[in-house]
Amino acid sequence: MKKSYIKISFFTALAFFIVTKTDAQFASKKINPKYEAYNDSLKKVKYNYVFPFWGQEAYKKGIDLQYPIGFMVNYFWVTQDVIIDNFQLGVDDIMNNYDMPLTPIPDSIISFGTNTNTTYSFNVRPDIWVYPFINVYGIFGYGHTSTDVEVFANLPGSEPLHFTAGINEGVTTYGTGLLVAGGVGPVWFSLDGNFTWNKLKSLNKPTLGYVVGLRIGKMFVFKHKPESNISIWAGSMFMYMQSETDGSSSFRDVLSDDIWEKKNQLVQNYRHWYDNEATPAQKVIADRYITPIVDGIDAREGESLVLYRMNKQVKNKFNGLLGIQYQMNKNWQLRTEGGFIGNRKSFIFSINYRLLGFRKKAKIL
Questions:
Q1: Given its phi and psi angles, is residue 300 left (phi above 0), alpha (psi -120 to 50 degrees) or beta?
Q2: Global pTM value
Q3: pLDDT tens digit sequence for 19-54
Q4: Taking a C-beta distance cutoff of 8 angstroms, is the pair 18, 235 a contact?
Q5: How deeply is 224 buried, as exposed, middle or buried, from its count of CB atoms within 10 A (0-12, 13-18, 19+)?
Q6: C-alpha distances in angstroms, 51 versus 34, 315, 355?
Q7: At residue 227, does pLDDT exceed 70?
Q8: CATH topology of domain 13-355
Q9: Which among 257, 278, 307, 335 counts the fewest CB atoms within 10 Å?
Q10: Kind and range of the H or E element at 238?
Q11: Which residues lie across from 148 on neighbouring strands?
């Protein structure tokens, strides 16, 4: 089953807005005696770069800053359940000069069971530490999203239909975010929030999502190489997606193959019921909700357009997090993080390259 009855297109993650965790920079003094010499050397640093602002003041306090400008490449995967409600359906048959405007479809005619979305993506996230405790970043990515949708449909004259359909579609993402970080000793925290816009071919417009994440971790510095360290953390993330989605596609694309295999029999059964068994009251209801759908399926082998609008949301808005990062040196970092809670599972792997950036102009005396 390759196609979905409706195009569940907002994930993707979906998927992209989850993957944008920035580095955990924090104002941390090396209070352990074994780092005392390194801490003293930090206080003597002459910091002659534009970012972060107050960088010189941070070094005077013995704060070990990351390089301020970074370019991170992320691979992200997530699977989770989604909820669909307030489903509306319409038909646009140009060849036969017929259209049915978007109409709310009762659950007694079409309803949905368990709907599972899986998304993977690659994105690039440039960032800059504006202050030692504030980081801003952008998000630019592309990936694929697929959704298995459990559909229940009642077509008069036939047995109720129960089938699982699917969709596989590319998604382009762009967005921006802000992180605030701090710490005491080797223990750090970060509060991260971002907005992303996700565009799929089937959507009339991009969908907006936002994520807020809180992480608390601890850094373990290598004794003989203090610029290298390992950080581990735990945290939680809240995710929200724009609720309403609307789009269009052909009946051929949105219905699964097993439905097309028995299309002729389904259409014949419905027409027989309508012509010979339906009461006038049933025909009024059928003409409003069902007949246009059957006509759209029957016309030109499914090339009529199906219009749809729905409200959709992730089943679990909160997610637990566990992660680890290895900083090889001030330039290179490797990171992985897993998400877990309820039916949502996620994984991210990141490579981050950082540099000092712009020097301050020399003052002319």
A1: left
A2: 0.79
A3: 334 444 544 444 456 666 777 787 888 889 999 999
A4: no
A5: exposed
A6: 29, 41, 11
A7: yes
A8: Lipocalin (2.40.128)
A9: 257
A10: strand 225-241
A11: 116, 166
